[in-house]
Amino acid sequence: MRAAVLRGGRMVYRDDVPDPIPEPGQVLVAVRSCGICGSDLHFAAHGAEVLSLSDEMASSFGGGAMHVDLSNDVFMGHEFSAEVLEAGPDTDTHPPGTLVTSVPVLMSAKGVEPIVYSNNTVGGYAERMLLSAPFLLPIPNGLDPKHAALTEPMAVGLHAVNKSGIQRGETALVLGCGPIGIAVIASLRARGVETIAAADFSPKRRELATAMGAHETIDPAQASPFDSVTPKVVFEAVGVPGIIDDVMRRAAHGTRLIIVGVCMEPDTVHPFFAIAKEINVQFVLAYDPTEFAASLRALAEGEIDVAPVITGDVGLDGVGEAFDDLADPARHCKILVTP
Question: Which residue numbers delimit the Alcohol dehydrogenase-like C-terminal domain (predicted)?
Answer without folding.
Answer: 179-300
